[in-house]
Amino acid sequence: MATYTVTKKDISKISYNVVAVLSSGNQINLDEVATNIAWEENESELATRLNITIRDVEVNGKRLATQIALCTAVLLYYDDGDGYKEAFRGTVWEWSHSGVKDDEIIITAYDMLFYLQKSDDYGFYEAGKTTQEICQSILNDWGVPVGEYSAPSINHEKEVLKTKKISALLTEILKKAELMTGAKGIIRANQGKCDIIKYGTNSEIWTFSADTNLMSVADKYSMTDLITRVTILGKEDTEGESRPPVYAVRDGSTQYGTLQKIISIGSATEEAATQDAENTLKEKGKPTRRITLVAPDFPRIRKGDRIRLLTDMVDGYFFVMTISHNATNQQMQMEVEPL
What we know:
The protein is mostly beta strands. About 15% of the residues lie in helices and about 45% in strands. Strands 1, 2, 3, 4, 5, 8, 9, 10, 16, 17, 21, 22, 23 and 24 form a 14-stranded mixed β-sheet that branches. A three-stranded mixed β-sheet has the order 12-15-14. It has a three-stranded mixed β-sheet with strand order 19-18-20, covered by helices on one side. Helix 2 runs antiparallel to helix 3. The longest helix has 16 residues, at about 165-180. The two termini are about 15 Å apart.
Protein backbone atom coordinates (compact mmCIF):
# COMPACT_ATOMS: atom_id res chain seq x y z
CA MET A 1 0.00 0.00 0.00
CA ALA A 2 1.29 3.44 -0.92
CA THR A 3 2.50 5.75 1.83
CA TYR A 4 1.11 9.28 1.85
CA THR A 5 2.14 12.38 3.72
CA VAL A 6 -0.59 13.95 5.81
CA THR A 7 0.42 17.57 6.14
CA LYS A 8 -0.69 20.57 8.16
CA LYS A 9 0.50 23.89 6.76
CA ASP A 10 0.27 27.54 7.76
CA ILE A 11 -1.95 29.07 5.10
CA SER A 12 -2.28 32.54 6.60
CA LYS A 13 0.20 34.27 4.28
CA ILE A 14 -0.78 33.09 0.80
CA SER A 15 -0.50 35.69 -1.97
CA TYR A 16 -2.03 35.73 -5.47
CA ASN A 17 -1.11 37.23 -8.82
CA VAL A 18 -3.41 37.49 -11.87
CA VAL A 19 -1.89 38.43 -15.21
CA ALA A 20 -3.67 39.28 -18.46
CA VAL A 21 -1.57 38.78 -21.60
CA LEU A 22 -2.82 41.07 -24.37
CA SER A 23 -2.68 40.26 -28.07
CA SER A 24 0.23 42.72 -28.31
CA GLY A 25 2.20 40.61 -25.84
CA ASN A 26 1.98 43.26 -23.11
CA GLN A 27 1.02 42.05 -19.65
CA ILE A 28 -1.25 43.66 -17.05
CA ASN A 29 -1.38 42.66 -13.38
CA LEU A 30 -5.11 42.45 -12.73
CA ASP A 31 -4.81 41.66 -9.03
CA GLU A 32 -3.82 45.29 -8.47
CA VAL A 33 -7.23 46.51 -9.75
CA ALA A 34 -9.39 43.48 -8.81
CA THR A 35 -12.26 43.62 -6.33
CA ASN A 36 -12.92 39.88 -6.59
CA ILE A 37 -10.87 36.88 -7.76
CA ALA A 38 -12.42 33.41 -7.58
CA TRP A 39 -12.09 30.14 -9.45
CA GLU A 40 -13.85 26.80 -9.29
CA GLU A 41 -13.81 23.21 -10.51
CA ASN A 42 -17.26 21.60 -10.71
CA GLU A 43 -18.00 17.90 -10.77
CA SER A 44 -19.99 17.99 -14.01
CA GLU A 45 -17.46 20.11 -15.95
CA LEU A 46 -13.96 19.46 -17.25
CA ALA A 47 -12.87 23.08 -17.37
CA THR A 48 -11.90 25.33 -14.49
CA ARG A 49 -13.77 28.65 -14.42
CA LEU A 50 -12.11 31.87 -13.25
CA ASN A 51 -14.27 34.87 -12.29
CA ILE A 52 -12.62 38.28 -11.88
CA THR A 53 -14.15 41.65 -11.15
CA ILE A 54 -11.89 44.62 -11.87
CA ARG A 55 -12.22 48.41 -11.92
CA ASP A 56 -12.13 50.11 -15.32
CA VAL A 57 -9.17 52.32 -14.62
CA GLU A 58 -6.40 53.56 -16.88
CA VAL A 59 -3.37 51.30 -17.23
CA ASN A 60 -0.55 52.39 -19.54
CA GLY A 61 -2.67 55.31 -20.69
CA LYS A 62 -5.73 53.26 -21.73
CA ARG A 63 -8.86 52.18 -19.91
CA LEU A 64 -8.93 48.46 -19.18
CA ALA A 65 -12.31 48.13 -20.92
CA THR A 66 -10.52 48.90 -24.20
CA GLN A 67 -7.71 46.42 -23.56
CA ILE A 68 -9.26 43.26 -22.08
CA ALA A 69 -10.97 41.55 -25.02
CA LEU A 70 -12.48 38.12 -25.63
CA CYS A 71 -9.78 35.45 -25.95
CA THR A 72 -7.34 37.49 -23.87
CA ALA A 73 -5.05 35.04 -22.06
CA VAL A 74 -5.32 35.09 -18.27
CA LEU A 75 -3.02 33.36 -15.78
CA LEU A 76 -3.45 33.02 -12.03
CA TYR A 77 -0.53 32.31 -9.72
CA TYR A 78 -0.29 31.74 -5.98
CA ASP A 79 2.54 31.67 -3.44
CA ASP A 80 1.96 29.65 -0.28
CA GLY A 81 5.53 29.94 0.91
CA ASP A 82 7.33 27.87 -1.73
CA GLY A 83 7.40 30.43 -4.55
CA TYR A 84 4.76 31.27 -7.14
CA LYS A 85 2.96 28.37 -8.86
CA GLU A 86 0.35 28.36 -11.61
CA ALA A 87 -3.24 27.73 -10.53
CA PHE A 88 -5.06 28.65 -13.76
CA ARG A 89 -4.27 29.23 -17.42
CA GLY A 90 -7.08 30.14 -19.77
CA THR A 91 -8.79 32.77 -21.89
CA VAL A 92 -11.60 35.31 -21.49
CA TRP A 93 -14.94 33.95 -22.73
CA GLU A 94 -17.25 36.62 -21.37
CA TRP A 95 -16.98 40.15 -20.07
CA SER A 96 -19.50 42.81 -19.22
CA HIS A 97 -19.21 46.52 -18.44
CA SER A 98 -21.54 49.52 -18.13
CA GLY A 99 -19.34 51.72 -20.32
CA VAL A 100 -18.75 54.16 -17.49
CA LYS A 101 -15.17 54.81 -16.42
CA ASP A 102 -14.20 53.31 -13.05
CA ASP A 103 -17.23 50.99 -13.10
CA GLU A 104 -16.69 47.28 -12.66
CA ILE A 105 -15.69 44.94 -15.47
CA ILE A 106 -16.90 41.39 -14.83
CA ILE A 107 -14.73 38.77 -16.54
CA THR A 108 -15.30 35.02 -16.92
CA ALA A 109 -12.41 32.91 -18.18
CA TYR A 110 -12.09 29.15 -18.74
CA ASP A 111 -9.11 26.90 -19.26
CA MET A 112 -8.49 25.13 -22.58
CA LEU A 113 -10.79 22.20 -21.74
CA PHE A 114 -13.83 24.45 -22.15
CA TYR A 115 -13.51 23.97 -25.91
CA LEU A 116 -14.16 20.26 -25.31
CA GLN A 117 -17.30 21.13 -23.36
CA LYS A 118 -18.67 23.31 -26.18
CA SER A 119 -17.75 21.20 -29.25
CA ASP A 120 -19.41 18.05 -30.65
CA ASP A 121 -17.63 15.06 -32.11
CA TYR A 122 -18.11 11.35 -32.78
CA GLY A 123 -15.82 8.39 -33.27
CA PHE A 124 -15.25 4.74 -34.00
CA TYR A 125 -12.58 2.58 -32.39
CA GLU A 126 -11.95 -1.04 -33.19
CA ALA A 127 -11.96 -3.69 -30.49
CA GLY A 128 -8.79 -3.96 -28.44
CA LYS A 129 -8.12 -0.24 -28.06
CA THR A 130 -7.32 0.80 -24.49
CA THR A 131 -8.96 3.60 -22.55
CA GLN A 132 -5.72 5.53 -22.71
CA GLU A 133 -5.39 5.10 -26.48
CA ILE A 134 -8.96 6.25 -27.13
CA CYS A 135 -8.71 9.31 -24.86
CA GLN A 136 -5.35 10.30 -26.31
CA SER A 137 -6.69 9.89 -29.85
CA ILE A 138 -9.66 12.17 -29.15
CA LEU A 139 -7.44 14.82 -27.56
CA ASN A 140 -4.83 14.60 -30.32
CA ASP A 141 -7.55 15.12 -32.94
CA TRP A 142 -8.39 18.41 -31.23
CA GLY A 143 -4.82 19.52 -30.76
CA VAL A 144 -4.94 19.22 -26.97
CA PRO A 145 -1.51 18.30 -25.53
CA VAL A 146 -1.69 15.26 -23.26
CA GLY A 147 0.34 15.36 -20.07
CA GLU A 148 0.17 12.67 -17.42
CA TYR A 149 -2.01 9.59 -17.81
CA SER A 150 -2.50 7.49 -14.67
CA ALA A 151 -6.26 6.85 -14.82
CA PRO A 152 -7.60 3.28 -15.11
CA SER A 153 -7.21 1.81 -18.59
CA ILE A 154 -8.90 -1.32 -19.91
CA ASN A 155 -9.16 -3.05 -23.28
CA HIS A 156 -12.45 -2.01 -24.87
CA GLU A 157 -14.82 -3.79 -27.16
CA LYS A 158 -15.65 -2.01 -30.40
CA GLU A 159 -16.60 1.57 -29.50
CA VAL A 160 -19.07 3.47 -31.66
CA LEU A 161 -19.21 6.94 -30.11
CA LYS A 162 -22.36 8.77 -31.16
CA THR A 163 -22.32 12.54 -31.65
CA LYS A 164 -22.15 14.42 -28.36
CA LYS A 165 -19.93 16.89 -26.56
CA ILE A 166 -16.26 15.86 -26.59
CA SER A 167 -16.20 16.11 -22.81
CA ALA A 168 -19.05 13.59 -22.68
CA LEU A 169 -17.22 11.21 -25.03
CA LEU A 170 -14.15 11.28 -22.81
CA THR A 171 -16.07 10.81 -19.56
CA GLU A 172 -18.09 7.97 -21.14
CA ILE A 173 -14.89 6.09 -21.97
CA LEU A 174 -13.41 6.72 -18.51
CA LYS A 175 -16.66 5.60 -16.85
CA LYS A 176 -16.41 2.20 -18.54
CA ALA A 177 -12.91 1.76 -17.16
CA GLU A 178 -14.11 2.83 -13.72
CA LEU A 179 -16.92 0.27 -13.70
CA MET A 180 -14.49 -2.50 -14.64
CA THR A 181 -11.73 -1.52 -12.20
CA GLY A 182 -13.50 0.33 -9.40
CA ALA A 183 -11.09 3.27 -9.72
CA LYS A 184 -12.14 6.78 -10.71
CA GLY A 185 -10.38 8.83 -13.36
CA ILE A 186 -10.46 12.59 -13.75
CA ILE A 187 -9.60 14.93 -16.61
CA ARG A 188 -8.15 18.34 -15.76
CA ALA A 189 -5.92 20.99 -17.31
CA ASN A 190 -2.48 21.49 -15.85
CA GLN A 191 -0.09 24.17 -17.14
CA GLY A 192 -1.26 24.01 -20.74
CA LYS A 193 -1.67 20.24 -20.94
CA CYS A 194 -4.50 17.81 -20.26
CA ASP A 195 -3.85 15.34 -17.45
CA ILE A 196 -6.00 12.21 -17.14
CA ILE A 197 -5.27 10.86 -13.72
CA LYS A 198 -6.63 8.59 -11.05
CA TYR A 199 -8.50 10.22 -8.19
CA GLY A 200 -6.38 10.71 -5.09
CA THR A 201 -2.94 10.60 -6.72
CA ASN A 202 -1.71 13.70 -4.85
CA SER A 203 1.35 12.74 -2.81
CA GLU A 204 0.61 15.22 -0.01
CA ILE A 205 -2.75 14.82 1.69
CA TRP A 206 -3.80 18.00 3.43
CA THR A 207 -5.53 17.68 6.77
CA PHE A 208 -8.58 19.74 7.77
CA SER A 209 -9.56 19.58 11.40
CA ALA A 210 -12.27 21.28 13.39
CA ASP A 211 -9.87 22.75 15.93
CA THR A 212 -7.42 24.32 13.46
CA ASN A 213 -8.50 25.15 9.91
CA LEU A 214 -12.21 24.42 9.42
CA MET A 215 -14.83 27.15 9.40
CA SER A 216 -17.90 24.93 8.86
CA VAL A 217 -18.83 21.34 8.02
CA ALA A 218 -22.14 19.94 6.71
CA ASP A 219 -22.51 16.15 6.41
CA LYS A 220 -25.34 15.00 4.11
CA TYR A 221 -26.66 11.49 3.41
CA SER A 222 -29.21 10.85 0.67
CA MET A 223 -31.06 7.93 -0.92
CA THR A 224 -32.82 10.13 -3.47
CA ASP A 225 -31.00 8.56 -6.43
CA LEU A 226 -30.77 5.08 -4.91
CA ILE A 227 -31.60 1.96 -6.97
CA THR A 228 -31.92 -1.28 -5.02
CA ARG A 229 -33.33 -3.61 -7.68
CA VAL A 230 -32.80 -3.97 -11.41
CA THR A 231 -35.25 -6.10 -13.36
CA ILE A 232 -34.21 -7.24 -16.82
CA LEU A 233 -37.05 -7.85 -19.23
CA GLY A 234 -36.71 -10.33 -22.09
CA LYS A 235 -37.68 -9.68 -25.67
CA GLU A 236 -41.23 -8.52 -26.27
CA ASP A 237 -43.93 -10.55 -27.96
CA THR A 238 -43.80 -9.39 -31.57
CA GLU A 239 -47.58 -9.38 -31.70
CA GLY A 240 -47.87 -7.39 -28.50
CA GLU A 241 -50.36 -9.77 -26.88
CA SER A 242 -48.41 -10.49 -23.69
CA ARG A 243 -46.10 -8.78 -21.27
CA PRO A 244 -42.37 -9.19 -21.83
CA PRO A 245 -40.99 -12.02 -19.71
CA VAL A 246 -38.68 -11.29 -16.79
CA TYR A 247 -35.23 -12.48 -17.78
CA ALA A 248 -33.48 -11.77 -14.48
CA VAL A 249 -33.68 -9.74 -11.27
CA ARG A 250 -30.62 -8.27 -9.56
CA ASP A 251 -31.03 -7.06 -5.99
CA GLY A 252 -28.79 -4.59 -4.24
CA SER A 253 -29.26 -2.95 -0.83
CA THR A 254 -32.95 -3.77 -0.44
CA GLN A 255 -32.83 -2.96 3.28
CA TYR A 256 -33.56 0.59 2.12
CA GLY A 257 -36.72 -0.58 0.39
CA THR A 258 -37.36 -1.50 -3.21
CA LEU A 259 -36.39 1.17 -5.73
CA GLN A 260 -36.58 -0.53 -9.09
CA LYS A 261 -35.07 0.19 -12.49
CA ILE A 262 -36.21 -1.84 -15.50
CA ILE A 263 -33.86 -2.69 -18.34
CA SER A 264 -35.20 -4.19 -21.54
CA ILE A 265 -32.97 -6.48 -23.52
CA GLY A 266 -34.39 -5.19 -26.79
CA SER A 267 -31.75 -5.56 -29.49
CA ALA A 268 -28.96 -6.00 -26.92
CA THR A 269 -27.56 -9.36 -25.92
CA GLU A 270 -28.53 -10.95 -22.62
CA GLU A 271 -24.91 -10.56 -21.51
CA ALA A 272 -24.93 -6.84 -22.27
CA ALA A 273 -28.22 -6.32 -20.42
CA THR A 274 -26.89 -8.18 -17.39
CA GLN A 275 -23.73 -6.09 -17.40
CA ASP A 276 -25.85 -2.94 -17.63
CA ALA A 277 -27.80 -4.07 -14.56
CA GLU A 278 -24.64 -4.75 -12.59
CA ASN A 279 -23.18 -1.40 -13.57
CA THR A 280 -26.37 0.36 -12.44
CA LEU A 281 -26.11 -1.21 -9.00
CA LYS A 282 -22.43 -0.29 -8.80
CA GLU A 283 -23.18 3.33 -9.59
CA LYS A 284 -26.45 3.86 -7.72
CA GLY A 285 -26.77 0.88 -5.40
CA LYS A 286 -25.79 2.72 -2.21
CA PRO A 287 -26.95 5.92 -0.51
CA THR A 288 -24.72 8.88 -1.29
CA ARG A 289 -22.77 10.88 1.23
CA ARG A 290 -21.41 14.36 0.64
CA ILE A 291 -19.62 16.60 3.10
CA THR A 292 -19.36 20.32 2.42
CA LEU A 293 -16.39 22.10 3.99
CA VAL A 294 -15.59 25.78 4.28
CA ALA A 295 -11.99 26.59 5.19
CA PRO A 296 -9.28 29.21 4.67
CA ASP A 297 -8.21 29.06 1.05
CA PHE A 298 -5.43 26.71 0.11
CA PRO A 299 -5.00 26.98 -3.68
CA ARG A 300 -2.98 23.78 -4.12
CA ILE A 301 -6.07 21.63 -3.64
CA ARG A 302 -7.90 20.62 -6.80
CA LYS A 303 -10.86 18.50 -7.80
CA GLY A 304 -9.84 14.84 -7.66
CA ASP A 305 -7.39 15.28 -4.79
CA ARG A 306 -7.50 13.29 -1.58
CA ILE A 307 -7.82 15.10 1.76
CA ARG A 308 -8.11 14.06 5.38
CA LEU A 309 -10.97 15.33 7.55
CA LEU A 310 -10.90 15.34 11.35
CA THR A 311 -13.91 16.33 13.45
CA ASP A 312 -15.52 14.96 16.59
CA MET A 313 -17.65 12.74 14.30
CA VAL A 314 -15.33 12.04 11.37
CA ASP A 315 -11.78 10.80 10.95
CA GLY A 316 -11.17 9.66 7.41
CA TYR A 317 -10.00 10.28 3.87
CA PHE A 318 -12.13 11.83 1.14
CA PHE A 319 -12.03 12.72 -2.57
CA VAL A 320 -12.64 16.34 -3.57
CA MET A 321 -15.57 16.35 -6.00
CA THR A 322 -16.07 20.12 -6.37
CA ILE A 323 -14.02 23.03 -5.11
CA SER A 324 -14.26 26.81 -5.27
CA HIS A 325 -11.47 29.17 -4.24
CA ASN A 326 -11.86 32.84 -3.42
CA ALA A 327 -8.61 34.77 -3.28
CA THR A 328 -10.36 37.97 -2.19
CA ASN A 329 -11.87 36.69 1.05
CA GLN A 330 -9.26 33.89 1.25
CA GLN A 331 -11.81 31.14 1.72
CA MET A 332 -12.61 27.95 -0.15
CA GLN A 333 -15.53 25.54 -0.24
CA MET A 334 -15.27 21.84 -1.05
CA GLU A 335 -17.72 19.02 -1.56
CA VAL A 336 -16.05 15.72 -0.70
CA GLU A 337 -17.12 12.09 -0.68
CA PRO A 338 -15.63 9.04 1.07
CA LEU A 339 -13.02 7.03 -0.79
